Amino acid sequence: MTFAALLPVLLAGESGSRASYVGGTVPGLAGGTDGILQLTGEDSLLFRTRKATLEIPYERVNLLEYGQKASRRFAAAILVSPMLLLSKSRKHFLTVGYTDAGGQQQAVVLRIDKNHVRPVLAGLEAKTGRKVEYQDNEARRNGKG
Predict the structure, then answer these.
(1) pLDDT tens by residue, 55-96
(2) CA angle at 21 for the pair 67 and 30, rounded to the nearest 5°
(3) Is residue 96 part of a domain?
(4) 95 is in which domain, residue-wise?
(5) Which among 59, 70, 124 is positioned nearest to 94, based on CA atoms?
(6) Interior/surface letters 79-95, b for 16+ CB within 10 angstroms, e for the rest
(7) CA distance 132 to 144
(8) What three-state secondary structure class fits 98?
(9) Which of 43, 60, 69, 103 has the greatest count of CB atoms below 10 A from its CB?
(10) Does residue 3 belong to any structural domain of this protein?
């Protein structure tokens, strides 16, 4: 196989966005579970972990909310450099509300990689037909660009 034939495979990388399950109503999925959020499905979003896959049909999504939490890097400042006290660490959170097959309201809170926030939000708005609600103006600026 030539390099030119391999190029699309090499550029494809992982299919989806890195995310961590923070919490919600999903039984059997522990907080802090890392996985891949995939929006490429025609009918459903998928959150794939090593042990399980959560599938949420786009038509059942009734809430999309994005927010951030900024915190000072105290531990790193103590261990590495006091200059780190001047920088902030931002964590990006996406809440997806939906109804399950039984008609019950469910929710999933995911921490999204900062480099994937805008594509994930745009993709979810396009697939679900719902607008993302922003927790504050700073989240709106970072989520929309």
Answers:
(1) 999 999 999 999 887 544 334 344 444 544 444 567 899 999
(2) 140
(3) yes
(4) 16-144
(5) 124
(6) eeeeebeeeeeeebbbb
(7) 10
(8) strand
(9) 60
(10) no
Matching residue, tokens 């594509």: 119
In a domain, 6, yes or no: no
Helix (H) or strand (E) holding 5: helix 3-12
The enclosing domain of 28 has a CATH number of 2.30.29.30
11 falls within a domain:
no
How does DSSP assign 118-137, residue by residue? HHHHHHHHHHH--PPEESSH
Residue carrying structure tokens 């786009």: 58
Q: What is the identity of the amino acid at 76? A: A
Structure tokens at 132: 């993302």
Per this entry, what is the length of the chain?
A: 145
Q: Confirm if 16 and 40 have CB atoms less than 8 A apart.
A: yes
Which one-letter DSSP state was computed for residue 108? E
pLDDT in tens, 6-21: 333 333 445 789 999 9
Tally the domains of the chain: 1
Global pTM value: 0.75
- Phi and psi angles of residue 80, each rounded to the nearest 5 degrees, phi first: -110, -60
113-144 pLDDT tens trace: 988 999 999 999 999 999 999 887 666 666 66
